[in-house]
Amino acid sequence: MTYWCEQAWLPGGIARGVRIEVSGQEITSVTPDSPRAGTVLSGLTLPGFANGHSHAFHRALRGRTHHERGTFWTWRERMYALASRLDPDTYYRLARGAYAEMVLGGYTSVGEFHYLHHAPGGKPYADPNAMGEALRQAAADAGIRLTLLDTCYLAGGIGVEPDEMQQRFSDGSASKWAARVASLKEDELFRVGAAIHSVRAVPADQLSLVDSARVVHIHLSEQRAENEQCLAAYGRTPTELLDDHGVLTDCLVAVHATHLTTSDITRLGAARAGACFCPTTERDLGDGIGPARALRDAGVRLSVGSDSNVVVDAFEETRALELDDRLASEERGRFTAEELLAAGTDHATVGWPEVGRIEAGAGADFVTVALDSVRTAGIEPSGVVFAASGADVRHVVVAGRDVVRDGTHQLIERPETVLSKEIEALWQS
Predict the structure, then answer these.
(1) Which of 133, 288, 370, 409 is most exposed, with the fewest beta carbons within 10 Å of its own?
(2) What is the average pLDDT score of the chain?
(3) Which member of 53, 58, 197, 256 is catalytic?
(4) Is the pTM for the entire model greater than 0.90?
(5) 256 is annotated as an active-site residue
(6) Distance separating alpha carbons of residues 291 and 117, to the nearest angstrom
(7) 109: nearest Cα among 63, 142, 78
């Protein structure tokens, strides 16, 4: 398959007249200053974006958690009410629409932080991984790469048993969690990672039992209360606790990493860990602004995710690294456009290290953005990370297959109708 890009953002910068040759799921050659041939992609073509952290079922909360000024507890109550209504069939249908929206918004891979494992009351389904398999099928239908970050979630808080709702999340022990996860089988567009929900949800003596041979994600210091509870129980910050138990490695991705001490930042950098910021969710929940620039300067790999899917837009999430850091520091120029693109396209964060570059040998994932919309008209091409939105995405290729053409999803007809129908049904049940 041959694509000709009017402009393309290559590892060495933006080039014109770029011919991309694709064989199967791989880019085989990239040649700038080439004559038109094959499928013409007008605008700017970039590597596909990576959604490093998602809770697909939270998509049904959008616009429904702001009653009585929408406190965190309002949000949490609605989230638990929604979780209680999901089964493998409804989860599949909701996630199918959510993942289609992600592709339309510029994402070509997603890391699903998956903890909704069992039936109400904690009873396993006949297939213990039925809920995870529902997500696999939803992602396949939507044409997006999926890493199932299967999450170990054992407690309702430090020293607190899971409540009735949280029993759906728990396998009882880290060893039982690992046994269930071991039966998941990967395929071409589906990989399996691991996650620790948080230091509140996994007892300290079981942290090291979570498989660290693969990518491991954890909600880390998302809220000040988490730090306070960890200090009270263990005399350590959450980051220090992970370090004590051998979990702080270059396989770890700290999600949110909002309320860190200077020592925490140094430890994360020394371990060459990653940090996945979810700015639109952190903004929505009022969690705060994390130290993105300080983490990057310490050697931490940065990535972004849509988390609660209150916004699904790869450009909005990516530029928020810079814009939020401006607010916190009261300075401009915290990140270059190239640094932002690197964070937004870091597929290694979710276990796809071969994806995220337009070069020979890389996975064939790329996104073409219009440069003539009301948002992008007149900008410098590198300014797309600051000016474009998901509405400007015209073409998306995932693993060598056209999934979006001319702004239309090719695998799911009218994803907005799919989402509307399923979300309304869930809230009426």
Answers:
(1) 288
(2) 96
(3) 256
(4) yes
(5) yes
(6) 32
(7) 142
